[in-house]
Automatic annotation (TrEMBL):
<keyword id="KW-0418">Kinase</keyword>
<keyword id="KW-0173">Coenzyme A biosynthesis</keyword>
<feature type="binding site">
    <location>
        <begin position="11"/>
        <end position="16"/>
    </location>
    <ligand>
        <name>ATP</name>
    </ligand>
</feature>
<dbReference type="InterPro" id="IPR001977">
    <property type="entry name" value="Depp_CoAkinase"/>
</dbReference>
<comment type="pathway">
    <text>Cofactor biosynthesis; coenzyme A biosynthesis; CoA from (R)-pantothenate: step 5/5.</text>
</comment>
<keyword id="KW-0547">Nucleotide-binding</keyword>
<keyword id="KW-0648">Protein biosynthesis</keyword>
<dbReference type="Pfam" id="PF01121">
    <property type="entry name" value="CoaE"/>
</dbReference>
<dbReference type="GO" id="GO:0003746">
    <property type="term" value="F:translation elongation factor activity"/>
</dbReference>
<keyword id="KW-0067">ATP-binding</keyword>
<comment type="function">
    <text>Catalyzes the phosphorylation of the 3'-hydroxyl group of dephosphocoenzyme A to form coenzyme A.</text>
</comment>
<keyword id="KW-0251">Elongation factor</keyword>
<comment type="similarity">
    <text>Belongs to the CoaE family.</text>
</comment>
<dbReference type="GO" id="GO:0004140">
    <property type="term" value="F:dephospho-CoA kinase activity"/>
</dbReference>
<protein>
    <recommendedName>
        <fullName>Dephospho-CoA kinase</fullName>
        <ecNumber>2.7.1.24</ecNumber>
    </recommendedName>
</protein>
<keyword id="KW-0963">Cytoplasm</keyword>
<keyword id="KW-0808">Transferase</keyword>
Length: 196
């Protein structure tokens, strides 16, 4: 089964692009979403997060206190490394078992991850796509989507590799500005992937 990784900086639009692939019947593994699910369901991970970031990492209901954790990790690289070391191996395992269950008649699958290159998970994929957009557009999108401040978004961007770094490792590119059609670019890539 051909596995294609897809990434892009915060607000580049990788999730939006993946929704277009899904309309073509391509199964997508959303690593960031799975990471969040595991953080409230995997007992070992929950214990690790509480130990690293305190009991207040979870509400009494068991819900994750995203704000508490984000406030710690996006302001301190050592704390972020701790969180990544807890979460990423669990996400890798989940991807492995997800991929095994994909029906054999599917031409290829996508793995969408914000940290595809940074975490090394691109190595689990045969080819990788980078979604790009200018910095100001990414900032505006995330500020609007999450109701976040410019500083909060910049703090996350600062913890991700630059597009320049990522582009050295990518095989394909999708530009996502107002002037570029993601639908046409996805269709063109889909045709290429069917021939791989
Ligand atoms: C820190 C947490 C609790 C903040 O939750 P919050 O709801 O505010 O953000 P959310 O998960 O929706 O992420 C939004 C975006 O932030 C960026 N981001 C998230 N985690 C990270 C990270 N570890 N490093 C750099 N950027 C990150 C990504 O661009 C992501 O798409 C959450 O992001 C988390 O658990 N992160 C660790 C898991 C992880 O590394 N996920 C990303 C790749 S698997
Ligand atoms: N081409 C586009 N036109 C209009 N809005 C867009 C476009 N692409 C993305 N957006 C919007 O920008 C926001 C960010 O997009 P999306 O969530 O797909 O980015 P992402 O790269 O997955 O971000 P994150 O790393 O935070 O998960 C969303 O609200 C989305 O609807």
């Amino acid at each position: 089964m051909l596995k294609i990784g897809i990434t892009g900086g915060i607000g580049s639009g990788k999730t939006t692009v993946c929704k277009v692939f899904e309309t073509l019947g391509i199964p997508v593994f959303y690593a960031d979403t799975v990471a969040k699910e595991l953080m409230v369901s995997d007992p070992i991970l929950i214990a690790g997060v509480k130990k690293a970031f305190g009991q207040e990492s979870y509400a009494a209901s068991g819900a994750l206190n995203n704000k508490h954790i984000a406030q710690i990790v996006f302001n301190n690289q050592t704390e972020l490394d701790k969180l990544n070391a807890l979460v990423h191996p669990a996400v890798f395992r989940a991807f492995d078992s997800w991929a095994k269950k994909v029906p054999s008649n599917v031409p290829y699958t996508l793995k969408e991850a914000a940290l595809l290159f940074e975490s090394g998970s691109y190595q689990m994929c045969d080819k990788n796509i980078l979604v790009t957009a200018p910095l100001e557009l990414k900032l505006a999108r995330v500020m609007q989507r999450d109701g976040a401040s410019r500083e909060q978004v910049l703090a996350r961007m600062d913890k991700q590799w630059s597009d320049e770094q990522k582009s050295k490792m990518a095989d394909y590119f999708i530009g996502n500005t107002e002037h570029q059609s993601i639908i046409l670019q996805v269709l063109a890539l889909h045709e290429q992937f069917l021939k791989l």
